[in-house]
Every structure is written in structure tokens, then in C-alpha cells.
Amino acid sequence: MRFVSRALVLSALLLASPLVVAKGACLIQGQLSGMSFTDCSEVDAASPDGAYKMQCESNAASIKSVGGNATATVSGACPADPQGICENPMGRKVRTYYYGRNAQTLVVTQRSCESAGGTWRSP
């Protein structure tokens, strides 16, 4: 369980990386520690699209480097109907949306958000 919690924290922190683009989203889907996940970070600031895409792809590469598998997709917005949203973790201007988590994993994700200084919202 401890490894799973660390894996979830890693996933959350990677998505909280300072991704910057005019209203853009980075959708990361994959598996880590035997658990499937779908997370998406969304930003409002402006920066070149190429830099944003590279940062998004590097998040997926970081997950792969610790034994997971992940794909990264850049789009204009995150999918609808998240289970929870972490706003501005680590002082970053980013919203991270979480999907498909069981109740226990969602609680761990909320705690990770709040311990990183983020504000948790349940839609």
C-alpha cells in the first residue's frame, strides 16, 4: 500500500508541473503499481505549444521511468465529470482532474493534494 501511495503522489505531483499554454490540458492515462489511472492537468497561462507538449510528454516518460506505463495527450480542456479536482498545488496555477479512482485511492489523492498546498474540490 505504501508503494501505491507513493505512486499516486508521484502521479499527482508530475501533473502539477508548471505546464503553460493558452487554455491547454495534458491528459495522462496509464498504469502505475498495478493500478490504472486517468489524470488531467489544465492551465490558463500562455506559452509556445511545442514547450507545453514536451512537458506533457515528459510527465508520461517520468511515470514510465518508475515502472509504469502512460500515454500523454495534449488538448484544449480536460474531460468532463472528474471525481475530484486539485487546484494550485505547490503554488502552481494549475488544476488537476482525477477520474476512475476507487474510494480509498480518491481519499489518498485528496490528502496528497492538500499536503502539497492545493485546494481539493469534489464536483
Element layout with pairings:
Blueprint: H1 2-15, E1 24-32, E2 35-43, H2 49-65, E3 69-75, E4 84-87, E5 95-99, H3 103-115, E6 119-121
Helix pairs in contact: 1-2, 1-3
What this model shows, in words?
With 123 residues, the chain is of the alpha+beta class. It has helices at 2-15, 49-65, 103-115; strands at residues 24-32, 35-43, 69-75, 84-87, 95-99, 119-121. It has a six-stranded antiparallel β-sheet with strand order 3-1-2-5-4-6. Helix 1 (2-15) packs antiparallel against helix 2. The mean pLDDT is 84.
Number of domains: 1
Strand-residue fraction? 25-35%
Number of strands: 6
Structural class: alpha+beta
Order of helices and strands: HEEHEEEHE
- Ranges with pLDDT <50 over ≥5 residues? none
For the terminal residues, how far apart are their CA atoms? 27 Å
- What overall geometry do the principal axes of the alpha carbons give? globular
Quaternary assembly: single chain
Helical stretch tally = 3
- The neighbouring-strand order within the major sheet is 3-1-2-5-4-6
Briefly, what is this?
With 123 residues, this protein is α+β, with helices and mostly antiparallel strands. The protein has helices spanning 2-15, 49-65, 103-115; strands at 24-32, 35-43, 69-75, 84-87, 95-99, 119-121. The chain has a six-stranded antiparallel β-sheet with strand order 3-1-2-5-4-6.
Descriptors:
six-stranded antiparallel beta sheet; 123 residues; 36% helix; alpha+beta
